[in-house]
Amino acid sequence: MADLLSDEEIEAQLPDEWERDGDEIVRTYEFDAYLDGVGFAAGAGGVAQDAFHHPEMTIGWREVEVRLTTHDEGGITDKDVELAERFDDLR
C-alpha cells in the first residue's frame, strides 16, 4: 500500500507539464499525427501493466490525455508520480 501525498508533497513532486485535478494528476501529450498518439498510448499501457498501476487514457486527434490516481488509497501517491515520470520518458 502507498500513503497519500500531502498537498505540499504533490506540489513539490509533480513532474513538469503535469497538473493536479482534485485527486488525480493529469497531462495531455500532443503529437504530430493520430497514430503517434496511439503508439504512445500502447507503450504507456505496457509500462502501466509492468507497474500494475493503470491510468485513465483518452486518445484524441493528435493528443492523449493521461489521468493518474491511486484508487485503493483514494488519491495521489508516489506510485502516480513515479508512473508519470516513466510516461514522460517515453516521449
UniProtKB/TrEMBL annotation:
Keywords: Lyase. It catalyses: (4aS,6R)-4a-hydroxy-L-erythro-5,6,7,8-tetrahydrobiopterin = (6R)-L-erythro-6,7-dihydrobiopterin + H2O. CDD domains: PCD_DCoH (cd00488). The keyword Metal-binding does not apply. GO terms for biological process: tetrahydrobiopterin biosynthetic process. It comes from the Archaea. SUPFAM superfamilies: PCD-like. It is an enzyme of class 4 (lyase). InterPro entries: PCD_sf (IPR036428), Pterin_deHydtase (IPR001533). One of its GO terms (molecular function) is 4-alpha-hydroxytetrahydrobiopterin dehydratase activity. Belongs to the pterin-4-alpha-carbinolamine dehydratase family. This is 4a-hydroxytetrahydrobiopterin dehydratase. It comes from Halosimplex carlsbadense 2-9-1.
